[in-house]
Amino acid sequence: MTLDVRAWPATYGDESQPRIGFFTDTSICIGCKACEVACKEWNQIPMSMKGFTGNSYDNTIALGSSTWRHVAFVEQRVPAGIEDGTSLVHAAQRAEAIEGGVQTYQEGDGLRWLMASDVCKHCTDAACLEVCPTGALFRTEYGTVVVQEDVCNGCGYCVPACPFGVLDQREEDGRVWKCTLCYDRLKDGLEPACAKACPTDSIQFGELTDLRARAERRLQQLKQSGQENAQLYLADDSDGIGGAGAFFLLLDDPEVYGLPPDPVDTRRDLGSIWAAAGAAAAALGLGLAAAVFGGRR
Amino acid sequence: MSAVETQTGGSGQPTWDGRPVRSYHGQPVLKEPIWTWEIPFYFFTGGVAGASAGLAELAGLRGNEVLARRSWAIATAGIVASPVFLISDLGRPARFLNMLRVFKVTSPMSVGSWILSGSGVSTTVAAVHAWTGALPAIAKVGRPAAALFGLPLSSYTAALIANTAVPAWHQARRPLPFLFASGAALSAGAAAAIATPPEYAAPARRLALGGAVCELGAGLVTERAVDQHGRAYRSGVAGKLSWASRALIAAGGAMMATRGERSRRAAASSGLLLLGGALAARWYVFKAGVQSASDPASVIGPQRAAIERGERRGAARR
């Protein structure tokens, strides 16, 4: 296989590796949570269970400092399959397809169940990394984004900077933690624990260029089988974060899965932010001068 | 629009512009900032220190040594308290020096750490010289350095919170630094007016009143810059604090303008009201950000609306 896209060659030079990532095909996720368990075990992450939510089968709740994979469960009523403005005839044909086992997700009695395994996106333009004041967050030779636990001082800036709400502080520990895309396993030529454990290959690991090509084919396949709402999320360099290392094939809008529809790296506005701060500082200087010299002593 | 109805587990449907917003069981998209009470207090003390150093230096240049010495003392109090708040907020306080491992312009917190360090050293030198006459050679550089460091020290904290994904902060990225700089001027003027005999405090009163007017104006602009007429700033705890801040600033400002020159007591009371108003203003900005981060509609609503208006493509491709 030719390695045509390498990660950050300007930084790593000869050590730069092909940029790798995850393609999570949610249409074949069965909600087994093996990814969550494998991640916890391999990375020795403390317990994070918070109780019973009543939100379908999801008691993991959200990504966080001790949850680096999170399987979302969404239950939707689909009235006789006539969503997307399709005709009743078309709907009936699709129902036959369901019985024939063509459908890629559970659909019956008008209920469909969406499942998706969420993870850190390892953004091309990663706000967490850019705002980190200690340099604890860094870009690896594989193009992934990792927190150095021996450097992080728990300042918390990356937490509200992430447009996906991925990073969080482990309270008893003080530092922030997130998915490393199994940096240690990559170094040994192994695939990440979650992808290894996924029984349906909903989580696919590999070189980003290959994954994107594969995802594009899968999207066309699903559209041809009547999934008009199928969409690739974060698979395009022109989005607000310059595309992601971990991207997704979704069967509904991103917000349904708890993902922001238009995430933007805050650095894109940093020029106007610094300009405003500079202008305000200058205005304060003028105000001080006016107050001291603009009247009696 | 599809006719798909999502089953949510109890929590009510979030809305945006009166329309329901699709979300994942009504859960937040962003993480709430983990910063604790020390941070809004630091926004306040950093502003006091920064603007007080400028006031002290300029008052000294104008020959008002009484005001200058008191302002140097106030600036030092602020600059000593600031790192205490910041270090105490860290998850790993013992690692605070890691802040000075690197210098990154993409991180206002990194830039701010260096500004605060420079400000801390120069302000302390200037204050020691103003009160004891020691270190005259270093103070010659230290005084103007402290005054200059104080300007960005008063506004970078707004850049810091604006440079996040939090809607109430990011959408207000242009007015927020002016709100913080106004608050710095207002509180430095108020603190100096409390500490200085009224006959020497005319510049401090002018600074406090000018800052108060700008603070109230910048507060209104900030609200208007945020979606849905500043919903995040007008609701919940942020709304109450915002109201309290404006009441305190208006009352303190009126009192200082009418009686601050004649009565030391009135100057002190009005100064305290103004300081309380400036502190409450830092708190309402902080709380508004926390509220908007934990509200899925405030995050999803504007993003989806911009996609529907055709202004942005969003991150999904069909």
Descriptive report:
The complex is a heterodimer of chains A (297) and B (318). Chain A has 297 residues and is of the alpha+beta class. Chain A is built from 9 helices and 11 strands. In chain A, the strands form 4 sheets. In chain A, strands 9-1-11-10 form a 4-stranded mixed sheet. Chain A has a 3-stranded antiparallel sheet with strand order 2-4-3, covered by helices on one side. Chain A has a two-stranded antiparallel ribbon with strand order 5-6. In chain A, a hairpin with a 2-residue loop joins strand 3 (107-108) and strand 4. Chain B is mainly alpha-helical and 318 residues long. Chain B is 71% helix and 3% strand. Chain B is built from 11 helices and 4 strands. In chain B, a hairpin with a 2-residue loop joins strand 2 (15-16) and strand 3 (19-20). In chain B, helix 6 (175-195) runs antiparallel to helix 7, helix 7 packs across helix 8 and helix 7 packs parallel to helix 10 (264-293). Residues 1-11 of chain B have low confidence and may be disordered. Chains A and B meet through strand 2, helix 4, helix 5, strand 7 and strand 10 of A and strand 1, helix 1, helix 3, helix 4 and helix 6 of B. Strand 10 (231-233) of chain A pairs antiparallel with strand 4 of chain B.
List keywords for this structure.
heterodimer; A: four-stranded mixed β-sheet; three-stranded antiparallel β-sheet; 11 strands; B: 318 residues; mainly alpha; two-stranded antiparallel ribbon
